[in-house]
Amino acid sequence: MSAPHSDKIHDALIVGGGLVGLATALSLDAAGLDVAVIDALPIEATLAEEFDGRASALAYASWRMFEALGVAGRLRQHAQPLTEILVSDGRAPDGLRPGGPGPFFLHFDSAELQTGLPLGMMAENRHTRLALIETLHDRGITAIAPAKAAGFDFSDPLAAVTLQDGRVIRAKLIVAADGRFSPARQAAGIRTTAWRYKQTAIVATAHHEQPHNGVAHEYFLPAGPFAILPLTGDRSSLVWTETPRAAQALMQLPDEDFAEELSRRFGDFMGAVRPGGPRWSYPLGLQIAEDYVRPRLVLVGDAAHAIHPIAGQGFNLGLRDAAALADVLSEGRAAGLDIGSEVALLPYETWRKADNVSLALGTDIFNRLFSNDDRLLRPVRGIGMALTGAVGPARRFFARHAGGATGTQPALLKGETP
User: Fold this and answer.
1) Distance CA 14, CA 300 (A)
2) Verdict on whether the full-model pTM lies above 0.85
3) Helix, strand, or coil here: 48?
4) Model confidence over 346-398: pLDDT tens digits?
5) Three-state SS annotation for 213-252
6) Cβ distance 26 to 139 under 8 Å?
7) Rounded to the nearest 10 degrees, how much is the dihedral formed by the CA atoms of 106, 270, 221, 93?
8) Topology of domain 5-414, per CATH?
9) Per residue in 76-129, pLDDT tens?
10) What's the angle, vertex CA 58, arms to CA 56 and CA 62, rounded to 5?
11) 325-354 in b/e burial notation, b at 16+ Cβ within 10 A?
12) CA gyration radius for the chain?
């Protein structure tokens, strides 16, 4: 007996209601497509601090996109502007002094770009998710959750997703926003190139005595980068990279011992520091899908690419995917193309793959260069950062690249609708 199905045929069905999936739904809706989103979890479960304690940096082009989609107004009160970023080869803690930034800095300042915008905005993921969900509801976009996909059919002329409860949802195009281990990508037989780093990221929130003044710090310790990312109030989100064994030991420490270890690595440049709230750990790796499109299928976000968090660009790459896909589908439909065909989708792959692969490899090289304690490399790295920071055009280029304002920009990243 055939499974029941909805008579509604959507233009695009987004599989995965995470941050990138929700942003993709809003982007395609802004392009005039009929969109639906399915996600395995109840929406309410994804809004608790215990579900996801991470925070994400929104590059200034990504913030313009949120303004164009109507998300920024809902998120602004929970978002901290990034006015400066300081990158240094940090000091490892020893018996005499705590860790902290090193003497040489690569310094980015929002005032230098003359955009009238900060370098970016920092917001905790749960606040970003709520702003996206509220906007989704206001736009009347169909959300099916909790609902887990049990099967995929990419046949012409319509694709279909069969849910575990037997429902079948049909669409001209399936958009896989279902993460690094994407079932939709696997069902289509798309292979990936991937490797794991011998690193685990510990994520926590820190409270400190002195204000951060909107300044983000990233300094490199022998095991990997230690990022201090300003949040609203005298708080910062920490992304602390360690070897898997050290990270496991740190995660198992009692709160008081963990606070002591955190203070040693953080340094004392913002006064006394203490952790607040839960802590999480995530293994780090790199993964790139060999193909981004197949007939009736397109990959976005971590389903297409997962990179090292060293530059804080993972979420921004997913937003660029969403904005580019909105442009490509809008143009394809205007040209009379079937939006689920490879002819219509290949421009998206060409556009996004070059950007994603180049940034993935760049973060990989940077991580390997700095995540060590080589006595010969350390002074060269510090001097190299200082020299790069002293050359205005080079410094501004890297700042614009981090802000998402280089290359061919989709309409949404320019603050326009497709």
Assistant:
1) 10
2) yes
3) coil
4) 999 999 998 888 888 888 877 776 665 666 666 666 656 655 555 454 455 55
5) CCEEEEEEECCEEEEEEEECCCEEEEEEEECHHHHHHHHC
6) yes
7) 140
8) FAD/NAD(P)-binding domain (3.50.50)
9) 999 999 988 888 776 555 554 555 555 566 777 776 766 677 888 999 999 999
10) 145
11) bbbbbbebbeeeebbbbeebbebbbebbbe
12) 22
Q: What is the pLDDT of residues 285-337, one digit of tens each?
A: 999 999 999 999 999 999 999 988 877 788 999 999 999 999 999 999 999 99
Q: Which residues of 239-258 are buried (b: 16+ CB within 10 A; e: fewer)?
A: bbbbbbeebeebeeeeeeeb
Nearest Cα residue to 228 out of 16, 55, 45, 46: 55
CA distances to 5, 21, 42, 86 from 212, rounded to whole Å, are 53, 32, 35, 12
252 contacts: CB under 8 Å, gap ≥ 6: none
pLDDT of 96 reads 47
How many helices (H) and strands (E) in the chain? Answer: 12, 19
Domain boundaries, the chain: 5-414
Q: How far is CA 117 from the centre of its chain?
A: 20
